[in-house]
Specification:
The protein is about 90% helix and about 0% strand. Helix 2 packs across helix 5 and helix 4 packs antiparallel against helix 5. The chain starts with a helix and ends with a helix. The chain is elongated, with a radius of gyration of 17 Å. The chain has about 150 residues and is mainly α. The chain has five helices and no strands. The longest helix is centred in the C-terminal third of the chain and has 34 residues.
């Protein structure tokens, strides 16, 4: 096994674990938030955003992926186009997720619990961004797997 293969496997594992978390949050936690009233949604989202943004597990996985790209590109350059495409999409998806979710978290936090129409609209926005993020995350893993196989 070459150094490049070892780094690719490490990056694939960290990215797959992150994708698992994203898919879980989208498929399970989002459904829980959809099943509660708007005031409870506001509370749940505040707790989720506070804890997820400070989670050592999530931060660690992101750091492994970000920092792992440095030796990966040093050893392989752009030789594995599929794997490189997965890493590029990971960067783009991370930016999209931050740009779409953080404003929703802030708007929900600023709303009063009695503002049910606005809270419902923000919940729908969050659903759409979560589904997009989960789909992109799965695509990232698929691109990286294709890169390892071919």
């Amino acid at each position: 096994m070459t150094t490049q293969n070892s780094i690719e496997i490490l990056l694939l594992v960290s990215t797959s674990l992150t994708t698992g978390f994203v898919v879980f949050a989208t498929g399970v936690y989002q459904k829980i938030m959809n099943g509660v009233d708007e005031a409870t949604f506001k509370i749940l989202l505040a707790e989720l955003s506070k804890n997820a943004l400070k989670s050592p597990f999530i931060i660690g996985l992101s750091l492994v992926t970000m920092l792992g790209m440095v030796p990966y590109f040093y050893y392989s350059g752009l030789s594995n186009i599929w794997f490189t495409a997965g890493l590029a999409l990971w960067i783009i998806t991370s930016i999209i997720a931050k740009m779409t979710r953080l404003p929703i978290y802030k708007r929900v936090g600023d709303l009063d619990s009695s503002e049910t129409i606005q809270l419902r609209a923000e919940r729908e926005r969050l659903n759409r961004t979560s589904i997009l993020n989960a789909g992109l995350s799965i695509t990232i893993v698929l691109l990286m797997v294709i890169g390892l196989l071919f």
